[in-house]
Amino acid sequence: MSSPQPGSEFWRATGAIKDDLENHTKRRYEVTNRFVTYQDLVKILQMEGRIHKVLYTDCLTTEDLHNIQHNFIVILTTLVSIGATHCLANFRSLFLTGSITDKDLPLEREQIETFLPGHSELVDQFEYHQYDFCPTVISCTRPLHCVPSKSRLPFEKKPENLGIGGFGEVDLVTITPGYWEFDRDCTNSSAYKVACKKFSSDSKEAFLKEYKNLTILKESLTTQSHILQHYTAVDHDQHSYYILFPYAEHGDLYQFLHGGAGSYELHNQFPRLPVEGDPAIFKPLLHQCWALACAIEWLHDYIQVDGEHIMCAHLDLKPDNILIRNDASSVVGKWMISDFGISVLEPQKLDSSRPLSVRGCYREPTIEVNPHGGRGTYRPPEAINRIGSRAMTNKIGRRSDIWAYGCIFTEVLAWAIGRREGVEYLAQERQIGITNDFFWDEHFGQSLSPQATGFKVRDSVVRWLDHIQTSPEKVVGEWVKTIKDILIIDKESRPKAQKLVTYVTSVYKPGDVPRDPDSPPIGSPVVPNHRELPRGSGLQAPSKPLPHGKKNCIDTYLSRTSCQGKVPIAVVSNDKVEVLSLDLSRREIREVQFLALFGKLGNAEVVIEGQYLAVWGFCKEEGERMVSFSVVLTELY
Fold it and tell me: Is 49 helix (H, G, I), strand (E, B) or coil?
C-alpha cells in the first residue's frame, strides 16, 4: 500500500494532532514529568474526524470507531506522535483483532516489537513516549501504589515546597482532573491539591517506618479528627517514595505563632482573629489546645486494630508538626497532629499473671525507647544523652509527649497575650546566657563535682509564668497553673494523657469550652459540671440518671462509638448478655437484643464497640476461662 502523499488529509491531521498534544502537555519542559491526560487525548483525536483521516486506509465502521475511542486512544496517539505510518496503515489488522489494548500500557519492548517488527528506532521511541500519555491514576482506596520508574505521576504543576524535614521534604502538589480517585466511583473533576511528603531513594527505611505507623493509625477501629491521616503512598520504583496527605491550607502552628514566619501575613490567613488584647481570643485557642490534648490521649490509649489496643508515643511534638486546616467554625483554624516518622507504636502487653481485663486490671503498659539524635526545644529532660557522663541516659516514651505539649501550651499562651512578640520574648528569655532555648535546665547540687545532679524547669520560664499569673484575666492565671501541673521534671510524676485532658478542660469553666462532636477521641473524659450554666450558652444542664431496670449484673460497658445519637451498652449477668441502646436525644434506654451465654460465668467482663461485642469470664461448668465474640443487631441504631 502506497504511503500517504505530502499535503494529504493524513499529514494535515497528524500535524494538527502533534500540535495539540504539545499544547495540552502538562509540565512540557520537564522531560521525565511531562504528560497528557486521557481526557485531552480523547478530545484531540475526536476533533474534525481525525481518527478517520489518520486511519484512512481502513474503512472504519461505527463499531470500530467506538472500539478505538474506548480501547486504543493512547496506542493510536503514541503511534501518531512517533510517525509510525506503516503501523497506522495496518491498524485494524494489528490491533482491532489483536490482544493488546490501552489497558496493557505501558508495554514491554517485546510487546511493542510484535507490531513494529524490524523498526528498532520506532520501538525505542514508542517505549519512551508511551509514558507521556498514560500518567498513573492515584486511588485513596489503595494503600500503596507501586509505580514503574518511567511512569508519570499526575502532578500537573511543578511541586511547591512547603518544608524540609529530617528524612524528606513536603511539597504542595496539584493532581490533574480525573487522576485522583476518592473511592471506586468518584474521581476529581477539577485540580485537587494534596501535601506530598517525598523521601529520597536512600531514605527507604524512613519511608517504610512512617508508612507503617500511618497505616496502623488509619486502620484503627476508633478515630480522631485532630490526627492528620494520610491518603495513600507511592513507591516510584525505588526512585522516590511519597506519602500523600490532606493539604493544610493555613500552614503549621510555628508559622501561626510567629506571625506567618515570612510565609504569609497573619491577618490574611486568619481574617476573623480578634484584635490583640481582646480576651475573646482565649476561647478558640483553648478549644484547639483541648482538641490536641484529646488527640494525644487517643494516640496514647485509644488506638484499636484487629481487636488489639495499640499505644503510640509521637516523640516529635512541636509547633512545626501541628498543621492548621481550614475550619469555618474556628477563627484560628483546625489544629492537627502530623509527622509520625519517629513515632513508636506498640501493642499493649498484658501481665499474664493477672486476670484478663480491659480496664486496668494489669500492670500499666508503657513505651520506653532510646532518645533519637538532636536536642530540640520541646524535648523533655529525660531525653538528654551525655555520653561518658554519670548523669543519665534515660528512656523516653508517652510522658515525653506530655512535656512537649506543656511547652507548646506555654507558647500558645505567650501568643494569646502578646502575639508574635510575646512568643519571641519568651524564647529570648530562655536563651539569656545560654546557647539553647529548652524549657528545662540541668541542676547542679552543692558538691564540688561539675556533673549535673538533676534537672529543673528553667528559671526564666518560671519567672515568666509567675509574672503573667498576676494578669487581671482570670483565664491566664488558670492557664499558668495548668502549665505548672504539666511541666513536671520527673516523668513518672508527669500527668498521663487522660489527666492532661482534664487539666486543659479546667482552664476555662467547662461550659466555655466549645464541644465539637467530631473533635474529641472516642472515650475522651468529660469533666462533669453541676453548676448552673449561663443563659444563652446553648448547653443543656446534666439530665437526671436514666433508670434501666437491670438487676444482678456483673459488669456493664458503655461503647465509645455512637451513631445517629445512639450509644450501645452491654450488661452481662452470670448467664446472659443484654444489649441496650442509649438514645441521647430522647434520653431513654431500650433493650435491643438478648444473648444467652455458654454457661454461668464468674468474674465476667464485657466490652462493646459499635456492633461488635465480646464477653469473657470463668465458666464453672467447663472449669476454665472462656470468651465469646458476637455481632449485635443493626436495630441498635
Answer: helix
Specify the pLDDT at position 74.
97
Which cell numbers hold the place of 588?
431513654
| Of the candidates 342, 340, 322, the residue with the CA atom closest to the CA atom of residue 332 | 322
Nearest 5°: phi and psi at 94? -80, -35
Using a 10 angstrom Cβ sphere, with 0-12 exposed, 13-18 middle and 19 or more buried, the burial of residue 572 is buried
pLDDT, one tens digit per residue, over 306-364 is: 888 999 999 999 999 999 999 999 999 999 999 999 999 999 864 444 443 444 433 45
pLDDT, greater one: 355 or 544: 544
Angle at 235 between CA 30 and CA 228, to 5 degrees: 100
For the chain, the maximum distance between any two Cα atoms, rounded to a whole number of angstroms, is 102
Among 63-77, 275-289, 559-573, 622-636, the least confident range: 622-636
**In Å, what is the CA distance from 354 to each residue of 34, 363, 600?**
62, 9, 21
DSSP line for 73-103: HHHHHHHHHHT-HHHHHTHIIIIITSS--GG
Sign of CA dihedral 160, 165, 166, 168: negative
At residue 293, the 3 state secondary structure works out as: helix
Dig out the grid coordinates for 165 from the structure: 524535614
How does residue 631 score in pLDDT terms, banded at 50, 70 and 90?
low
pLDDT of residue 540: 41
Q: Supply φ then ψ for residue 88, to 5 degrees.
A: -65, -35
All cell numbers assigned to 259:
506571625
Cβ-contact 208, 221 below 8 angstroms: no
- Convert the pLDDT of each residue in 565-586 to its tens digit: 778 888 887 678 888 888 777 7
Helical H segments across 94-153, by residue range: 109-113, 120-129
All three cell numbers of 357, joined, read 481485663
Q: Which of 276, 285, 293 lies closest to 324, judged by CA? A: 285
The alpha carbon of residue 632 and the mean position of all alpha carbons in its chain are separated, in whole angstroms, by: 30
pLDDT digits 0-9 by tens, 160-195: 999 887 677 999 999 999 999 998 889 999 999 999
CB-based contact 13:53 (threshold 8 Å): yes
Taking all residues of the chain, what is their mean pLDDT, rounded to a whole number? Answer: 84
* Residue 424 near residue 464, CB atoms below 8 Å: no
Instruction: Give the residue ranges of DSSP H helices in 455-599.
Output: 459-468, 474-486, 497-507
Residue with cell 510517525: 83
Instruction: Give the span between the Cα atoms of 312 and 216, in whole angstroms.
Output: 10
CA distance 506 to 485: 12
C-alpha closest to that of 567 among 614, 523, 624: 523
Q: What is the dihedral of CA 390, 395, 396, 397, to 10 degrees?
A: -160
Please report the pLDDT score of residue 7 as a whole number: 66
Q: How many CB atoms lie within 10 A of CB 125?
A: 19
Query: pLDDT (tens digit, 9 = 90+) per residue, 457-487?
Result: 999 999 999 999 999 999 999 999 999 999 9
Burial label for 140, CB within 10 Å (0-12, 13-18, 19+), is middle
Q: Which of 412, 356, 280 is nearest to 607 (CA)?
A: 356
* Among 375, 317, 340, 406, CA closest to 383: 375
